[in-house]
């Protein structure tokens, strides 16, 4: 029997997974807007997706410090209260036999002074604003380039957040190095025009990512550390002149220095927010060939289930599902049994209450005949 395939077991760090269907990190903005503490809704949401056990869940992007971004409703992992809130989430997931990593987030320039303590100016690699407005319709501000001595504080914040994550019961942390947030703002050539050791050459632009990985590994161990990367993304206005070379170098350094990371997670260039798998002239093969260990692939697989099954069988990769895991709390079961999927509702992706969060039915629930007055 092949050891590859979506429903073959695999080891991640110290955890044996029963299958390779992963909950992708998904921002849902339902934490307390002031304290950024996760609540009972989170316990229920992640508990539902822990299913019958044996799966890997990655949380929504989670702020490493008050300065990390602070979108209203995004959770944090810097305060005692937040750690206590997350403890209930990790317990619910562990009680059902699944594994959970928290995604560590600093948005850099992708925020606004109004959301930061003391209305501080957002920070980034360089003083270059994102073009246009954000999803809330607010025009982006010009950020302040981090001073070189502030970069070590930033790295420390990732390490502290990782330590807090372990205290909160997480099985590991995924460093968010993707989608145009601060680490990616350093990596991409159009958002980094620094002239110090963190800008210019590929070695310099990838230095922050690699130093964050070093610091987190030192704090919690390689088996509890992972990173997510997205070569070719233009989200948040990032663009790189030589993606294959840039991320090829970065992945090679990870392979050389940290071959025992829990996993490497990358996003397919074909990913699009439109309701299709999308298409791209690029793919992840170049990086996948460099990385020799556990690999998670994401992007458009919910719109291409046959492609997901085939890809997992061919490569042994885990596949992270985003939008269809929002709508199908029992997604691994449905995929294994080849059952139809619930559609997702884009209008309830972000914010608000339980609607579109914890009220999507499992397949079994969709089969229960509605209770009528006569039988009730
Ligand atoms: C509502 C929503 C929120 C997302 N939030 C995050 C996030 O917090 N961190 C992250 O790395 N990616 C985030 N993504 C990207 C997803 O993790 C995933 O890469 C993307 O949705 C592609 O997978 P899919 O085609 O299966 O949906 C988000 C996507 C959606 C739709």
Automatic annotation (TrEMBL):
InterPro entries associated with the record: Aldolase_TIM, OxRdtase_FMN_N, Oye-like
One Pfam short name: Oxidored_FMN
Residue stretches making up the NADH:flavin oxidoreductase/NADH oxidase N-terminal domain: 6-342
The protein's required cofactors: FMN
PANTHER family assigned to the protein according to its UniProt record, in alphabetical order: FLAVIN OXIDOREDUCTASE HXNT (PTHR22893:SF129), NADH OXIDOREDUCTASE-RELATED (PTHR22893)
Family per record: Belongs to the NADH:flavin oxidoreductase/NADH oxidase family.
Gene3D superfamilies, per database record: Aldolase class I
Record carries keyword Transport: no
Record-level GO cellular component terms: cytosol
The keyword Manganese is annotated on this UniProt entry: no
UniProt keywords, alphabetically: Oxidoreductase
GO molecular function, one term: FMN binding
Name recorded for this polypeptide: NADH:flavin oxidoreductase/NADH oxidase N-terminal domain-containing protein
